[in-house]
Specification:
The complex is a heterodimer of chains A (about 80) and B (about 600).
Chain A lengths: L2 H11 L1 H33 L3 H30 L5
Chain B lengths: L4 H16 L1 H37 L5 H15 L2 H13 L5 H14 L1 H13 L2 H16 L4 H33 L9 H19 L2 H13 L5 H23 L4 H23 L1 H15 L6 H20 L3 H11 L21 H26 L4 H6 L18 H21 L6 H34 L4 H26 L5 H14 L7 H7 L5 H28 L8 H7 L3 H19 L3
Helix pairs in contact in B: 1-2, 2-3, 2-4, 2-8, 3-5, 4-5, 4-12, 5-12, 5-14, 6-10, 6-14, 7-8, 8-10, 9-10, 9-11, 10-11, 11-12, 11-14, 12-14, 12-15, 13-14, 16-18, 16-19, 16-20, 18-19, 19-23, 20-21, 20-23, 21-23, 21-25
Classes of the chains: A mainly alpha (about 80), B mainly alpha (about 600).
Chain lengths: ~80, ~600
């Protein structure tokens, strides 16, 4: 049986597995969005001349970085988890 | 008693039929089994595809053609216009769908329902489908007895199809026996009188059986057995269309205004289409003949011709009615006016939505959002902000000004009047939504969010007692601290109101920023309170009050952010577990703020 067919069958039969896959997909999407936001903010920061606004952008950037770091660790953890059948 | 007379009449008539004629009994039992099959199939499909349909419908809201395609496709697939209509009404009621798009779905469903006639006139009549029914029923019932929700739904759907097949077989057998005994076509009527009489028969049959499919299958089997003339069968199919709309209209009497508008549109569409079909029946018949010749439908295959006619006049109805939708929307909104919502009345949640958990949860979220907007307005008033100053503020500093007059608002009375009634209704509604799996988590999150909102309101009440007193205080340092707490809370409410209105892409980052601000404002953790005591700017007693009130402000901010995280985004994209895992805890936020502070310091005083 091919891997994709096995995965589809497991998804159909096991709610836990289905939820785990859904969660991974959702997290990937969130991380992708965060990466985009991070690069946008970096560009904005380099163009900003006002020091107060720079501070604000820097804090915001730091918040996204920290959230992304947590997300990447979580994704790694989810990937390494054995599939529940 | 008089209300039950039709039911008593039908039961007596059927009783007599069972006693007098085994053939009539067989046909009647066939119709009953067919109807039961429809119910079982609907239950199965609701479990299997209910969630998918809800998701699909939520994506079909922006364009009319999408609504039409969804209505036609979903009805053709599920063979249940009732399911699609109910879903549409629930989406309309929860504000997820506009009337314009809703009408598109309903018109599309009318076209989708005509596929039933094709299935019945095609495969159903030409095979011994009764034989196929038996394994379906057996396997269906076995699956119904399992615990797995998906398998159970498949079981209901299989059993439903089995019962449908069995019902059709019994009707076929019944009409074949009738054919051997006597010829019902001798009673066929031609001309306008025949058209009118059989249209009325079609209406009555559909209203009584609550299913145009049942009327059509009865008509098609009678037609195939030669017990009904082709012209009379066409009139019955037109009547069946009107009958469906009458049934929907009767069901909508108890519905909310959106349900009534949709039922009104359904009635207008089906009546208009029927009138056009009756007036232009000859051109329609000619068109059917031409198309039948084109598709190679046999001369004597009246059943397929009937299916073709049914599709053709519904399609003509759509072509005719779609340009009239804007006028229809205006008329229906004028006839069925929505009343202005009193403060304690819900706008989105309604008992009708409980059958569709996805839209019920979405309605609850919108209602909670409405409650937040009201509660935050009251909180801002209680904090003595002038509405214009509060709305137009562009940064927290703009809210630091001392209010011209400090009023002591009765927060208990405001809570009882503006928050509690609607909050109670939301809690009650949430308790009655039947959910499982992912939706159960969403429901718990919504309940927590509603609780957080109320806690924030109550904490504001406690904070406000000292706030009012200390805003009038002669101690300038103390007054300044309370003005700062007030400005921070005002800014938070202002930002949350903006976020609740907008389609904010980076909600999570915005909320993290607001959380960081709440951390920064904590005067106990920052050591600012100790500094005030050391400098003897405030007394020990004042310091205790300030400490408590700073803690209240911190709790208010956290509660409101918890509420916003659940309520401000769409529920479909919500995964509370993920959000919790990704959100930054107070220690992490403080670490980021400290780092940001030291970076700024380094820039000001380079080493």
């Amino acid at each position: 049986m091919s891997d994709s067919l096995r995965s589809k069958l497991k998804k159909f039969m096991s709610r836990d597995y289905r939820e785990q896959v859904e969660k991974r997909d959702k997290l990937r999407k969130i991380l992708k969005k965060m990466r985009k936001q991070q690069s946008e903010l970096t560009d904005k920061l380099s163009d900003e001349a006002d020091p107060d606004k720079q501070d604000q952008l820097r804090t915001r950037l730091q918040l996204i970085r920290e959230q992304r770091r947590k997300g990447i660790n979580l994704l790694r953890d989810l990937k390494s988890r054995p599939d529940k059948d | 008693m008089s209300r039950n007379l039709p039911l008593v009449g039908v039961i007596l008539l059927l009783g007599w039929a069972f006693w007098a004629s085994p053939t009539t009994a067989e046909i009647a039992a066939g119709v009953a089994v067919f109807l039961f099959g429809m119910m079982a199939l609907e239950q199965g499909l609701r479990g299997l595809a209910g969630g998918t349909l809800e998701t699909l419908l939520s994506r079909s809201t922006d364009r009319l053609w999408k609504g039409l395609a969804f209505g036609a496709g979903a009805t053709a697939l599920t063979q249940s216009s009732t399911l699609v209509s109910l879903l549409t009404i629930s989406f309309l009621s929860s504000g997820l769908l506009g009337l314009y798009q809703g009408l598109g779905v309903i018109f599309g469903a009318n076209l989708g329902t005509t596929t039933g006639a094709w299935l019945m006139a095609g495969p159903a009549l030409h095979f011994n489908i009764g034989r196929g029914a038996l394994p379906m029923l057996t396997f269906g019932v076995v699956l119904i007895l399992t615990r797995h929700a998906t398998l159970k739904s498949i079981g209901w759907a299989l059993a439903g199809i089995g019962f449908l097949f069995l019902g059709i077989q019994w009707m076929k057998d019944g009409f074949e026996t009738v054919q051997q005994a006597f010829d019902l076509t001798e009673y066929a009527l031609t001309g306008i009188s025949g058209l009118a009489l059989y249209t009325v028969i079609g209406i009555f049959a559909t209203v009584i059986m609550q299913s145009s499919h049942a009327t059509l299958i009865l008509t098609i089997t009678a037609l195939a057995a030669g017990q009904l003339s082709y012209e009379n069968a066409l009139a019955i199919s037109i009547g069946a269309n009107i009958g469906t709309a009458v049934s929907t209209g009767l069901a909508a009497i108890t519905a909310n205004v959106e349900g009534r508008r949709l039922a009104g549109a359904h009635l207008l569409f089906n009546l208009g289409t029927a009138i056009v079909a009756l007036v232009f029946i000859v051109p329609f018949m000619l068109a059917v003949e031409n198309l039948a010749g084109l598709f190679g439908v046999g001369e004597d295959n009246h059943a397929l011709r009937l299916a073709l006619f049914h599709t053709l006049f519904n399609l003509a109805g759509i072509l005719l009615m779609v340009p009239l939708i804007p006028v229809m929307v205006l008329t229906l909104e004028r006839i069925f006016r929505s009343k202005p919502m009193p403060a304690d009345q819900p706008r989105y949640i309604h008992a009708n939505l409980l059958g569709t958990p996805g839209s019920a949860l979405e309605a609850a979220r919108k209602e909670l959002l409405r409650l937040f907007n009201r509660a935050s307005g009251v909180m801002a008033t209680a904090l003595n902000f002038e509405p214009a100053q509060f709305r137009q503020a562009e940064d927290p500093e703009a809210l630091l000004q001392k209010p011209p007059r400090v009023h002591d608002h009765d927060m208990d009375a405001l809570y009882l009047e503006k928050v509690k009634p609607l909050h109670g209704l939301i809690v009650d509604f949430l308790a009655r939504i039947p959910v499982k799996g992912k939706r159960a988590q969403q429901l718990v999150s919504l309940r927590m969010a509603s609780q957080s909102l109320v806690e924030a309101f109550k904490d504001t009440k406690h904070l406000n007692k000292n706030m009012v007193r200390n805003l009038r205080s002669k101690n300038a340092a103390l007054k300044k601290e309370y003005l700062q707490i007030r400005a921070n809370l005002g800014w938070l409410l202002n930002q949350l109101q903006h976020l609740s209105d907008s389609d904010e892409e980076d909600l999570e980052v915005e909320l993290a920023e607001l959380s960081a601000m709440a951390e920064q404002a904590d005067i106990v953790a920052s050591g600012h309170l100790d500094q005030l005591i050391r400098d003897r700017l405030i007394s020990a007693e004042e310091a205790t009050s300030l400490m408590n009130d700073s803690a209240y402000a911190y709790r208010i901010a956290r509660s409101l952010i918890v509420m916003a995280r659940v309520t401000f985004g769409s529920l479909e994209g919500l995964d509370m577990e993920l959000q919790d895992q990704l959100s930054l805890d107070p220690d992490e936020l403080r670490a980021i703020l400290t780092q940001a502070d030291s970076e700024t310091q380094e820039k000001v005083d380079p080493p």
